[in-house]
Design a protein that fits this description.
Layout: E1 8-20, H1 24-34, E2 40-43, E3 60-61, H2 76-84, H3 95-98, H4 104-109, E4 115-116, H5 119-132, E5 136-138, E6 142-148, E7 155-161, E8 165-176, H6 182-187, E9 191-192, E10 204-208, E11 211-215, H7 237-257, E12 265-269, E13 281-282, E14 300-305, E15 313-317, E16 329-331, H8 341-347, H9 350-366, H10 375-384
Parallel strand pairs: 1-2, 1-8, 2-5, 8-16
Antiparallel strand pairs: 3-4, 6-7, 7-8, 9-13, 10-11, 10-12, 14-15
Helix pairs in contact: 1-5, 1-9, 2-9, 9-10
Length: 396
């Protein structure tokens, strides 16, 4: 019988870029940095990539367009959308955007560039894509500690705990894609919480009469201002556990309404993480706000629109991805620096996570001192990838 010695502490690993969090932002950041020839680690606490988009069953790839016929988000954001339905879409196939057509602007203004995808297929396709690009993936990895350099202005290492081991990850630069600004929080950086709490949601997949369908129970939005004290923060372990248990009960009761389990009726897929949307974000050099609609930023690293309405179009300034007080740590995804819950609700979704993730991956690959980064270098890489960075490049 083999002796069990327990944890092997302090396994050391060295990388050029370490990405924490394997949601859409983390996938995009890791892929982006790896394509610049860097040695990249992607650490994910669960055992599947995609975050809310897959584990959370929020399987709607929200629009890459402005709703008026103009595509805004390109690069990895579009690549992942196409990847998500490369083996078939669950719905909302964006044919006006995929096929050459007469009067495309008119047709595209009546059909937004969005789609619906299968969470499991998409997750494994993303995993395969990352491995093909040389990204190391460490599943079951929860961050437990952060060490700073002697001057206290950079991350020296992070410690990741897995089921049987403890890893100390040294890296030139780090990208926080946790969705909760967890790395920034461990550093002691200033972060913000949403004013509103997360609405209660219990989304699940059901097989009924040969149809595999997503059931959307509850809100995917934050709680409205008149109910600000309801819902959950998404950061408290006991609160999250209670909410998940409540959601499971809601799901089971809803499923039973349609009959008992049979060959034509099954509860197909449960979410495996709390379906919360906004928890904690960084205080970056700049906080983008709703009134920045159509505003030009010299430091823009991508474009995005609003999934809530047609018309708005934003440039994403690089300064929303990092803090002036930390040299080698940036963020991507729903924890980037924004002003107000209304703007947070716009930027927390898949396309913006991918746009910010790709830009953060480039930033982290090019520098370990973001305070001295020459933004033109980041923009040059993105432009070489045929990504428009300013609205005037797409005629807006």
């Amino acid at each position: 019988m083999k002796s069990d010695k327990g944890f092997e502490y302090n396994k050391k690993r060295h990388y050029n870029v370490a990405v924490v969090g394997g949601g859409i932002a983390g996938i995009s950041a890791a892929l982006s940095a790896a394509r610049l020839g860097k040695k990249v680690l992607l650490a994910e606490s669960s055992y599947i990539l995609g975050g809310l988009a897959t584990s959370g069953l929020v399987t709607i790839y929200l629009p890459l367009c402005d709703g008026l016929g103009h595509q805004l988000s390109f690069g990895i954001a579009e690549e992942l959308l196409r990847l998500s339905i490369s083996r078939g879409a669950e719905g909302d196939y964006p044919d006006a955007w995929f096929n050459n057509c007469e009067d495309c602007v008119a047709k595209r203004s009546s059909q937004r560039y969005l789609t619906r995808f299968n969470p499991h297929v998409f997750a494994v396709l993303c995993e395969r894509l990352l491995r093909e690009n040389g990204v190391d993936i460490l599943y079951g990895a929860t961050m437990s500690k952060l060490s700073k350099n002697k001057s206290g202005d950079s991350v020296s290492s992070i410690t990741l705990i897995t089921k049987t081991d403890s890893y100390v990850i040294y890296s030139d630069s780090f990208v926080d894609c946790t969705g909760d600004a967890t790395v920034f929080y461990h550093f002691g950086a200033e972060t913000f919480l949403p004013y509103h709490k997360n609405g209660n949601a219990a989304w699940y997949y059901e097989l009924i009469n040969g149809e595999y369908r997503l059931k959307q129970i509850g809100s995917c939005f934050y709680i409205s201002s008149d109910k600000v004290n309801e819902g959950i923060s998404g950061l408290d372990g006991e609160e999250n556990s209670a909410e998940v248990i409540k959601s499971h009960s809601i799901i089971l009761d809803d499923f039973i309404k349609n009959g008992d389990v049979s060959k034509t009726h099954a509860l197909a897929t449960l979410p495996t993480i709390p379906q919360v949307r906004m928890t904690r974000m960084i205080n970056g050099v700049y906080r983008i706000k709703k009134t920045d609609d159509k505003k030009n930023f010299d430091t823009s690293v991508g474009l995005f629109g609003s999934w809530l309405e047609k018309g708005p179009a934003f440039e994403l300034p690089l300064e929303t991805l990092y803090s002036s007080k930390i040299k080698n740590l940036c963020a991507a995804g729903r924890c980037i620096s924004v002003m107000g819950d209304d703007m947070w609700d716009i930027t927390r979704v898949i396309p913006v996570c991918a746009v910010s993730g790709e830009a953060a991956g480039v930033l982290a690959a090019l520098s370990s001192d973001f305070s001295n980064i020459y933004v033109r270098d980041v923009q040059s890489v993105l432009s070489d990838r045929n990504i428009p960075l300013h609205l005037n490049e797409i005629g807006l």
